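User: Hi! I'm working on a homework problem where we have to compare a predicted structure to a textbook description. Could you give me the structure for the chain below?
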Amino acid sequence: ANQLRLFLHSAAYVLIYNTKERLFKHTEIAGFTTDSFIKKIMLSAVHIKEMKSLIKISFTKGHRYRQEMENALSLLASA
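Assistant: Happy to help. Predicted structure tokens:
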């Protein structure tokens, strides 16, 4: 059980690292450590609305990295 948990944790770390490096290339966020990325980006407050053929994500107006997040999500949606 512990080996499986370690494997899953390692796989999640690799996915987070690759997401940070690919989606946020040439931004301030690309220089974040993985821990900072998780705390500042992944744990951000957002409102997610699921529709039949669309997922809408709304950020707070004062979100520091709002533009970078919108660009990354647009890049992800076009892939």
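For your comparison, note the following. The mean pLDDT is 89. The CA atoms of residues 46 and 61 lie 10 Å apart. Good luck with the assignment!
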